[in-house]
Structures are given as structure tokens and as C-alpha cells.
Amino acid sequence: MTATRLNTGGRIDRSRRVTFSWDGKTIEGFEGDTLASALMASGQQILGRSFKYHRPRGVMSAGVEESGAIVTLGEGAYLDPNVKATTQEVFSGLSAKGQNAWPNVRCDAGAVLGLFGRFFSAGFYYKTFMGLPPFEWGRGTGIWMQYEKLIRKAAGMGEASRAADPDHYDHSHAYCDVLVVGSGPAGLSAALAAAKKGKDVILIEQDFELGGDYLNQSDPVVELKRATLVDALKAAGVRIMTRTTAFGLYDFGTAGLLERVTDHLSVKPLHQPRQRFWTVRAESTILATGALERLVAFTNNDRPGVMTANAARSYLNRFGVLPGQDIVITTNNDSVYRTAVDLVKAGAKVTVVDLRTELSNTLLNKMSQVGVVVKTGLAPLKALGRKIVSGVQLARPNGTQWIADDVLSCDLLLVSGGWSPVVNLQSHRGSKPIWNAKDACFLPGKCNDNVTMAGSAAGYWQNDDCEASGLAAASLAMGEDVKPPSAVGWERPLKPLYEVRIAGQKTKSFVDPQHDVTASDVRLAHQEGFVSVEHLKRYTTLGMATDQGKMGNIIGLALMADALGKEIPDVGTTRFRPPYTPIAIGALAGRNTGEHFKPLRRTPMHDWNLKHGATMTEAGLWHRPWYFARPGETLNEAYIREATTVRETLGICDVSSLGKIAVQGPDASEFLNRIYTNAFAKLPVGKARYGIMLRDDGMVMDDGTTWRLSENSFLMTTTTTNAGKVMVWLEELLQLRWPELRVHVSSVSDQWGGVSIAGPKARTAIASCLEDAGVIAAENLPFMGVRKTTLKGGIDCLIARISFSGELAYEIYVSADHGEAMMDLLWDAAKPMGGCLYGLEALGTLRIEKGHVTGAELDGRVTIDDAGLGQMASTKKAFIGSALRQRPELTRSDRAQLVGIFPKNRNQTFNGGALLCEKENVKGFGEGWVTAVTHSPALGHWIGLGYVTGGHAAWQNQTLIASDPTRAGEIEVEIVSPHMFDPKGERMHG
Amino acid sequence: MIRIPCPFCGVRDHSEFSYGGDGSVQYPALEASSQDWHDAVFQRDNICGMQTETWQHVNGCRMWLLVERDTMTHEIRSVRPAQTGLTTALEAIK
Ligand SMILES: [Zn+2]
């Protein structure tokens, strides 16, 4: 292939030179070039190395179906592998290099792998796992472990950067009446027709120019038509998006688009994202996505210098590059003759080799007039040339076999094996394409959605027909009763051709060049019984490369059909799935990365906590104080000091993240009585009660205290993590099951700032913060009492005397705006008394010492009895879950039950998540598991909570093993009552 | 992307909604037997075609809805409020 840039012609701008680098060399192109056309024009022929065999590859197409010129762009963190040079625009400063090769694509040490082809044939990985005779009978895994690294290094695509993606991406949404995908003859006509009828139209084009097949033609009349159409579209207000791929079609007219915003720019504006991910909702969709020309399987059909015939037409007419001087075009259809004429006019010597023998004299005369030599009844058997094509060995059919014929020398071998309409997007919607034997292609089938196919995507092969089908599609999309025009088709019928070979000759003829799947791989799959298309695909990886089988699928199907003695439609086809072309993960993520990956919820005292030295931790979406370290303190030192301080004096802890739900209405008490396991109907005003709610299936859902503020008004608290779930559940019950209950629920979690004050001196500290200190006296606010009162400065608040730590403790809630003021008041009072601020870690210590459960214990798999709270399930009333908690499996006495855990050697620690096993039987799931572990300052050693079969009673005075093989190993532990500290609860009643 | 016409808010993407479950289930009284509750909670048909489902417009009006949806095509045949009183009220203002 000796390509040259022509002095005239094409759509490139010769006045604007573009300098870029290829494998470190400086190369010049023009604005309007793709990387492929610029490299071709500058004489670069080998642009890639193949996936498995490291065979040299060059440009094979001029579009997204490219399987040869696959390169890596950019440097460092901006490294972008597996980019198709045929679609990438060149720009000044672009840096590109070959991939899957060392030291470079022209001279690749890995090419020696090609000599060991048998190791890489279909099913290589599977067979190697099972043992590869004769090396390792039945010991495949061993050899695999040794060679995996080598093989993975040698076989593959480009390497991604290991650094985080430094680019940013956006998400956008749009609505329209008609979405038109593709701007060729059909798409432009359809978009204009719809817009003229007043429809809001969006036109999508993956290329950087509008026109599709118009762009591949040199006729000025065609260019005038194209320009006129584009101007009319702009005048009609059509929203035009170039460099945008419709990668998927989804339910209800939703399309996913990827807009490449700055990938073609030398200077990327900071205010622009690299790419934009669009979700478009359209009333109707017209797919004018065109058709792709197929190759044919023959020996060495992947040599640089072999490409599709239409690609040559595109390089010549669009990019002003004559891709060869001495050209052979092999074909089985009419589409190549226009290309032959164009190439001859540009100065090349052209021979067309047509498989068909019955060509019209008109055509033959026309060809001989312009100087195109036509040979008939022949097909390519083998591309000649070691690294680059230097000729072609032809063959002629003889019955079902082939016989070798002439050898033609050439520097460019063009192939046309027929055309495949791009039905991918419609296939995303579950539409099955229909095989058309006449044109040897799949045509779009029936689709239930408002999706219309037009142009060559619907099997119209001439520009005029495509335009007419575009107009008809627009009418159909608008609900008009129109019959699509009948397709004229090819002048002379196509003669199906998928593979040319002489039986018995072992050669490499590629079906899916991108994944190095050969025709023999397909036959091997058939031999070994992988005959369904889905099995064929997985066994050979045919169609699983980045082009998703755009080039090779039909040939693969045809070969399998041949092996099975069936017709192609009887073999079936795999369903196409999004994306049509690869999408960067970054585009899918958009701005939802890093801190924006999920929303951050801050309590009203968030800044106050930080100001006072809090180290934060995540609790669901919330950030909560983890511990308040003094200078030089570690986490362990800090939380042990905090927990000790709470037990000795007092501590203050932000509990604002607890879920809070206002439950109001005349039937509120009846409602609560149905959802909690214990009695709520007679809870007096001014009292709080701890409640547990179950799911329908009898498992524990959530727990918390609910406060009766007045006859018809309750404040329910939930755990931080279940706040949303409980709210949804209450709404479901009220709207779906008990519409007769006059109850209203609303989430007030963010309206209140809440704090817990715990410790022997809690009452004294709070008293000094109240306008009326008497309110908090023991006789006025007994255990579980709730009062509305006022903090100093006139801040209204709710005080409840409830305890999670087992100490004398209160929770105070104020409106969120007053959160910080409340903290200032309380801290000023507590600090001089020797109090502390404490975080989640100390909170955990205090509750573990008391055997109080949280999410770690209430994990959705435990019953109320398992959690040791069975006495809270009323026997006098029915409640949600009361029926199904009686199921035999849930009432067995040997179920795992909540226990306390001590290390046998009190100096040892153990881990949450460890399995509890019998001493001589450390295996499987064991007898239970550890849910939480802490160092207990009250007891002076490490303690834990967990579940063990049969509970505390079953394992008293016995030693179990806390088995944690990946971390701490095996630790001997004792099972104790979960109430490890102050079991009678005397401290909180003080 | 399924789009659901909420009777209160209009047509919205399904990402605003959360799926509940089988909308045809009649839950027994709380006092009913384990067997009745077992059937209501665990016995489900796996319908190929049109089925009634509960959905909540959780990122919208938070109303629970009864949605008739085709499990094969995602076609939505009807949407009405789950609370029967609201259906009547909506009919009245039509
Ligand atoms: Zn709504």
C-alpha cells in the first residue's frame, strides 16, 4: 500500500496544517483528517498489532467498525487506549501510539507468538484450565498459574492508565418529538420532513460532519444537495448534534447519547466537560444508521493493505488520499464499481475481480472505457506479502470447492463481501432482525416501539431510495399512514460469499480480526459441539471485542450454518446490546464522583463538632463525630477516655441523625399499637417508650423510642440507617392497608437537632442550662419522661429522659437552627464539671457493655427472641409480624441468640466478623458469629456481642474459638450474658 | 427507562419511583392465622404479561400507586392511587 495525498479534492482544509505525534514521530495532516487518513497519507502502514497473534494490522475501514487501526491516545493520566484511528479527528498536539506491541507496532517481539497459534485457538483458556495434553494431564490449573501472567501480558488490547481519570464529564437531558439518528441521505431527509411539519427534532451524528454517504462522493451536485439540506435543517430549527453517538435505545423512547465535546480540540476549554452523557426522551425515533461493508474470510485477509472497498472511496473522496497505486478490488456485488471509477480517475491502476459471471455489457463497456480491468468468476484466496500486501492469489469456484487461479500483484486489496444494515439500536429494543437471502443481510424486523428504520439501515442501497425512505419514515413517525417505498436493490443480484478456502489447507483467515477469531476457530467450535450462536460466541469470543462483531458476526454465522448444513436464519443471531460503541466509565459516572458520589448529610451541629475537634466517620449518608481526640491521642485512647468519662461524670453526643417521624391524628395511638410489638395504646402523654417493629415475615425491622407529645401527636425516632425505610413502610401501611386510620406521618429528621447527655452529672449540667431548673428534677422528669421546656436564651426544646448508655441520660431536641446554640450552652456547663464530648466509637462501647442492639445485631435475619428482646412482644394484641414470628423455624430453641463474649485470656482482643466455633471443630459456619467488639473501660478488657446457637445458656462455662483466619487467627473466648455491665440497670434510674 | 404517569404529578421517569410489590395481594387481618399470612407474604405468581403492582412516587408526591404493567413490554396500562378514597376524590374533580 503506497498511499499518497492528492493535491486537490476531498473535504480536508489544506490551508490548515495540523502537527501531531505518532509513536514519537512528528507527522503532519490537515484539519478535517482523521488519524487514520493522516497516517495513511504520510506513509504509515502498520498501525497496530493483533490481540492474540501480534500480527501487523493496518487501516481496514473508515469508521466505527475498524478492527486494525486501534491505537492509544494521550499520555500519563490522560492515556486513552483502544481508540479507533478511523474516527479520531487529528488536532495539533495530538499524541498517539501503537498498542499491544513491544518495542513498537512495526517491529514487535511478541509476533513470535503467532508461531504458537495452536495455544491460542478457540477454547484455549477452557482447555488449559482442564489440563493441556500432553504437558499436564488433569493438572491444568498448575500450568495456568505459571503462564497466566505471561499470556495476559502478551495477549490484549491497549493498557489503561492506572491514575484516576483527570477529565470531567457531564450528564444532560433532552426531550423532543422526533429523534433522528444518522445524517446520511435518509437521516437528513427525515429530519427535514419532520421539522417542516412543526415537530421538535433532534438530529444525531457520530461523525464530525453531517452527510453520511454524501461525504464519500466527489460529485459537486451531491455536495450541493447535502449543503442545501443542512442549511434547511438549521433554518427549520432542528437541534443538530455532531460527534454524538446514540449508543443505546431503551424503554419509552429513551435514547442514551454520548457527545464527545473536547476530544477533537488542541486546547480543551476548562468550562467544558470532555464528554457529555445525554438521556433523550423522544416521542418517536428514526434510525438512519446506515450499513457497514463486510470483509470475506480468506488467508491473510488481515494484512495491512487489505480494506473494505468503500473505505478506499472515503479516503479518496473525503480525505484526498489515494490509498494505493496498483489496486485489486474483489467483490460479490455492484457497490464497488463507483469506487473503481473514482480510483482510476485519481490515477490508480484498478482491477475488479467479481465473483459473479453474468455482468451486463453496459457495465463492462463502461469499465473498459474508463480503464478498469474486470475479471469475473473469481474470488480472493490468499493475500500475499509478508508484512504488507504485495498481491493476491485468486480462486474460482468448482462445485462447493475452490480451485486456485491467477496471482495478481497489487499494493492495495479492496474487499466487498456485501453490506450489513446497522440494526443494532433496534435490536436493543428486543426486535429480531430478519434474514434477507437476496441481499445476504439481516434487515430490521418488527418493533413494538415507535421506532422507524430508514435508508441503508432498512435495506435501501441507492441514495435516491434512501432519501425517499427517509421521507416515508418521517411520515410514519408522525403517525401518518404511509407505505415505505419499495427498495430497488442492486442492479444485478449479489452472490453471497463468506469464505474462500481450499479444503485441508491450514491457514489463518480472520472472521473477527479484532479478537483474532479465525474461520478454523469457528469450525473447531462446531466440532467440539458449541453449535448454538450464543455458545459459539462465548467459546471463540467472536463478536466480543470492542467492535461487538460489527465486522465478523455475519461471516461467523455463515460458517456455522455451513458446518451444520443449515441456512443462516436457522442458526439464529445474537442480540445486540448497548453500547453501540465503547463509552468511558467516566461518562457514565458524570459528576457523581468523589465527594459527589453520594449526597452528604450534615447534622445541624456538624460545624460545631468539627470546631471542637471531632474526627468524623460515615453513617449511611451522614457524617457523624467518631471521636474527639485530645492532642496526641489515638482513636483507641480517645474513645476509652470518652466512655470512661461518661460513666464517671458526663458526656455529650450529637444524635441528630436519628430518624424522626411525626405521627399525628386521632388514630395515631392505634396505628403505633399495630406496628410496634409492645403496647402503645395506653402510653400516657409526656412519656416515651422503647419499641420494636417487625416486618410482615416476623423478622425485626427497626427499633427506637416514641414520645407521646399530646393526645394525638407522637414523635417517633428510628435508627439513623433505617429512617427512610421506616418512613416508606408507614406510608405504605397507611395508604395501602389501613386507609381507614386517620393518621398522618411526616419526616421531621432534618427539623430537629438532637443531643444526648449521659453520665452521673448529666442532670446537674442540664439544670444549669434551663430557664426553669426544676423541670428536670427527678420527680418532674422520671425515667422515660418527656417535657417541653425552654433553654436559657429562650430556646424551646424537648427533653426526654432516655438512656442508650445505661447511665442517667437525657436527649434534648431543639429546632435545627438552634443546634449550635444548644451545644454552646451544654458544653459551657459540662466542661468545667470534667465532662467530655463523645463520638460514635464511645457510644458503641457504652451500648456493647450494656448489650444494647443496633444495626450490626438487627441485620434483617434475626427475630425479636434471637435479639433477646422476646419479652417485648405482646401476647395480648396482634401486630405486624405477630403471626409469622410463630413459624416453627423461627421458634426453635437452638436458633442463634444474642450473647456477650469475653476473651478467655483477658489480655487478648478479637475481631468483629469472626466465626464462633467449637474448639475441635473450627470449620464451616461454626456455631455463631461476632457482631461487635470494643475495649470496655468499665470491665478493663475487650468484650464483644454476637450470636451463638442456643444462646448464653447453651455455652455457659465452655470455651469457644473466635475464628478469624485472615486477620487475628483463632482466639479462645467465653460466652456470657449480653448484659455485661450493670445488668440490673440501677445507674440509669438514679 | 419506564415512564409512569403519576395521577398527582404527571409523567415521570421510573427513577423517581420505587417498586413495592404485587398489588393484587389482600393482606389478612393482623389476628389472622399464620397460614393466611404465609400465603399473603410468600405466595406470588410470576406473571408473564399484565400485572398490578404497587409503586411509590418516593422522590415526588410520596403517594403509593397501583400500576398495571406488562412484565414483557413494560407497557403501563393504568395508574391509580392505592388509597381508594383518593381514587374516588380524583374521579370527582375530573
Ligand atoms: Zn406523584
Summarize the structure.
With 990 residues, chain A is α+β, with helices and mostly antiparallel strands.
What can you see in these coordinates?
Chain A has 23 helices and 49 strands. Chain A is α+β, with helices and mostly antiparallel strands and 990 residues long. Chain A folds into 6 domains: 4-111, Roll (Ubiquitin-like (UB roll)); 121-154, no CATH class; 167-294 and 419-495 and 579-594, FAD/NAD(P)-binding domain (3-Layer(bba) Sandwich), CATH 3.50.50; 602-656 and 752-845, 2-Layer Sandwich (Gyrase A, domain 2), CATH 3.30.1360.120; 659-747, Aminomethyltransferase beta-barrel domains (Alpha-Beta Plaits), CATH 3.30.70; 891-990, Aminomethyltransferase beta-barrel domains (Elongation Factor Tu (Ef-tu), domain 3), CATH 2.40.30.110. In chain A, strands 9, 10, 11, 12, 13, 14 and 28 form a 7-stranded mixed beta sheet that branches. A 6-stranded mixed beta sheet of chain A has the order 40-41-42-39-33-43. Chain A has a 6-stranded antiparallel beta barrel with strand order 44-47-46-45-48-49. In chain B, the strands form 2 sheets. A 4-stranded antiparallel beta sheet of chain B has the order 3-4-5-6. In chain B, strands 1-2 form a two-stranded antiparallel ribbon. In chain B, a hairpin with a 7-residue loop joins strand 4 (50-56) and strand 5 (64-70). Chain B is globular, with a radius of gyration of 15 Å. The two termini of chain B are 29 Å apart. Classes of the chains: A alpha+beta (990), B alpha+beta (94). The interface between A and B is medium-sized, with 25 and 31 residues. The structure holds zinc ion. Zinc ion (ZN) binds next to loops of chain B.
